[in-house]
Amino acid sequence: MSDVRQQGVALISVLLVVVIATVLSVSMILHQNLTIHKARNVSDHGQAKQYAIGGEELARQILWQDTDSSPEVDHLQEDWAAGDLVFEFENGEVAMQIEDLQGRFNINSLMMSGNAGLQAQVRFVQLLQHVGLDTMFMDRAIDWMDGDIATRPLGAEDYAYLGLERPYRTASQLIVDTTELRLLLDMDAESFDLLLPFISALPDPSASLNVNTAPPEVLQTVSDRLSSDMSNDLIIERDSQEGYQSVTEFLQSSYVAGLGIATTGLGVQSKFFEIRIRARYFERDAYLTSIVQRNDDGSMRVIYRNFARKVFPESVKEEEQS
Predict the structure, then answer these.
(1) Got the DSSP string for 244-303?
(2) Which uninterrupted H or E stretch holds 106?
(3) Contact between residue 314 and residue 82 where contact means Cβ atoms under 8 Å apart
(4) I want to staple 81 with a disulfide (CB 3.0 to 4.6 A). Which of 22, 76, 114, 201 is the partner?
(5) 211 to each of 16, 74, 154, 220, 245, how far by Cα in Å?
């Protein structure tokens, strides 16, 4: 009996060892598969990110070709402004959208001196009124950027912000990103969202407003006598003739002639563009928002990159929702 018992114990011990070895083997295989899966995901995401950077380079080439073909004028019928810039390749695609930032009101133009600065202030007040915001934000934007401690009539300097529950100071410099406006005193999320589509923060305060790419809300800022209907008709005329060849031609339009529009700060050519990219490689997506400055010779300088924003070109949004 003792031999049989010993054999039974030995058999159980062997079975126990086999079970333990099996459990360990399965665990190792699962861990290895998980590690391989993670490594593949990291590799695919890294590849997608590189495709996003490649998309930026492609957009820069499109903008360079535009300079080569029509260096004097930029308008929304040119190739760079197409809303369906989607390029497919094996195992993925790159979708992008290029937007002229000089078609928006440059918030940094408020810091220009002399008549140019005064004209910018008048236009910003017009924009605030058109989107339904209090004109006090014009004074507060200037106080946010200027380097002094003198408060404008409706403005706010450091002492107003230091008294908040979460205190902070004004920037005392040009605005780097439009999201800074969210920090202005009494600027809530709803007000900011109303203003955001119509403003930019360009490093050059003197960058002109391109009347060939501005939306109706921004075009209306050039004159308080330019109504919403008139600005919409103006855009139809503008786009049908592939933009105005000069500011003079713009002012000769029947919709604005005689309105006494000042030419200060207006133009028909642009240097600053925002490129929004979504790159896909297998099941991984990468996103990139870049701001580029195009020089007179067509060369490009990237002045801003953000890989965090998950933005889609509108054409891609509509395609995915359908």
Answers:
(1) -SSHHHHHTSTTTTTS----TTEES---EEEEEEEEEETTEEEEEEEEEEE-TTS-EEEE
(2) strand 105-106
(3) no
(4) 76
(5) 81, 9, 30, 10, 10
| CB distance 264 to 121 below 8 Å | no
Residue 45 has pLDDT above 80, yes or no: no
Q: Which two tokens stand for residue 184?
A: 């202005």
pTM, entire model: 0.84
Full DSSP string of 153-186? TT---HHHHHTSSS------S--SSGGGGGGSTT
CA dist 207 and 275 (Å) reads 18
* DSSP letter (8 states) at residue 150: P
43 alpha carbon, distance to own chain's centre: 27
pLDDT of residue 36 exceeding 90, the answer is: no
Say how far apart CA 270 and CA 93 lie, in whole Å: 28
Measure the CA–CA gap between 114 and 229, rounded to whole angstroms.
32
10 Å Cβ neighbour count for 246? 14
User: H or E segment at 152?
Assistant: none
Measuring CA to CA, which residue among 307, 310, 309, 305 is closest to residue 320?
Answer: 310
Give the other-Cβ count within 10 Å of 32's Cβ: 10
Residue 39 tokens read as: 């490594």
Q: Which two tokens stand for residue 263?
A: 């030419």
Q: What is the largest CA-CA distance in the chain?
A: 119
Instruction: Pick 13 or 306 by higher pLDDT.
Output: 306
